[in-house]
Amino acid sequence: MLNCNEKKADIGIFGGSGFYKFLDDIEEIKVETPYGSPSDKLMLGKIGNKKVAFLPRHGRYHDILPHQINYRANVYAMKSLGCTRVISPCAVGSLQKDIKPGDFVICDQFVNFTQGRIDTFYEGPICTHISVADPYCPELRDLAIKVARNNGVNVHETGTMLVINGPRFNTKAESKFYTNQGFSVVGMTNYPESYLVRELNMCPLNISLITDYDAGLVSDTEPVSHKAVIDVFNNNIANLKKVLFELIEQIPDERNNCECGNTLEKGRV
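The chain above was modelled as a monomer; its predicted structure follows.
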């Protein structure tokens, strides 16, 4: 772990499917953690007066599947660089007809249907129970919604992310069940990533980019394929980068309207 006095970044960004590069003028650094190696080297750069760390969660060649990602190492690496906020854009499928490919959803809830993923930094001896009744940072969510609207993006201000294990996509029966439950979108990486961010007192933000209609039931379309996901994501990458650049510039230096920085203090007896 780097010396905590050597602050390398203010804001961390995880890139997902189709999003492997963010900044051009970068410094690449290798970070080792107590939990092993992150998915790739971290890429450091600047946007305005903010120092930014970027990490493609699947690796820059997309050779790490969702259930194989070392989420603890990735999140710990961001913390070790000094990040206080972490933004997690991800490609997801829509489970509701009014949420269309090309739309953004700024999720406010998640439901975890993954299995076997190590999902905590705290395994004793101190008893630690973190509350994530509202899992995402309200200050970052409000700002992301405003910036997306200012850039002409069709953005949904709330939504529930269903996180499945992957790497397979859903059956039609599963997709129908999830739609009937009222879930908004489905992805494979946001848990435990966003939760681990909270465990380390950082602010998590999810930006879901809709690439498809999952198994195609709610829209009477073809079921999702990985090629289709990447094609739609690539068509929308310019919008994502515009939103991220403006969002990062507008994030205040100090956290004023959230309690994310006190998460651990409130979770221990």
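The helical segments are 71-80, 138-150, 172-180, 190-199, 226-250, 263-266.
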